[in-house]
Amino acid sequence: MLLVLSEEHKEHLGFLTQVDSAVVGEFGRIAVEFLRKGTNPKIYEGAARKLNVSSDVIQHGVEGLTYLLTEGSKLMISEIDFQDSVLVLGFSEELNKLLLQLYLDNRKEIRNILGELAPKLPSYHSLEWRLDVQLASRSLRQQIKPAVTIKLHLDQNGDQTTKILQTDPATLLHLIQQLEQALGEMKTNHCRRIVRNIK
């Protein structure tokens, strides 16, 4: 699978051809640091003074490199695919090898950082349910009004929370059908391919 880069990203990465390999390596370190701690304008300004360019050019170069490394790490593309993706940029052989080495050295760390940035959603722990049926009331002697009460226990970051939901059986059946349809769709080849690339 090849990375598809927009013209804007190609333009931002084009700056790397104007600097030597040590600077590209430093940009790689800054890109990983950018993922870990966020942007730091002082670093861009310091690098801009040393290279006699504007800080925006440095920032765009680092952001372009960050995008290249994160997309490659997210998709876990192979060495050959990464080289083919970078080949489109028209860089020298030395720069291509340097970018590949940068990618291989930081791939696991970038995936770990991206995993930490992902939102922690609650997960299922257990479920209790009860069926209540109201057969009559003072005003209506023969009425059947069923209700399903569900107590959902969730885990989030080691803490347990409880949600209580109440619905009628028709809505519950519709919900079950929708969930079964979603599970059935997960078994299609298209979804399997997407899930395989996410992992």
From TrEMBL:
It comes from the Eukaryota. Residues 123-190 form the COMM domain. PROSITE patterns: COMM. InterPro entries: COMM, Commd2. Pfam families: COMM_domain (PF07258). PANTHER family: COMM DOMAIN CONTAINING PROTEIN 2 (PTHR15857), COMM DOMAIN-CONTAINING PROTEIN 2 (PTHR15857:SF0). This is COMM domain containing 2. It comes from Gopherus evgoodei. The gene is COMMD2.
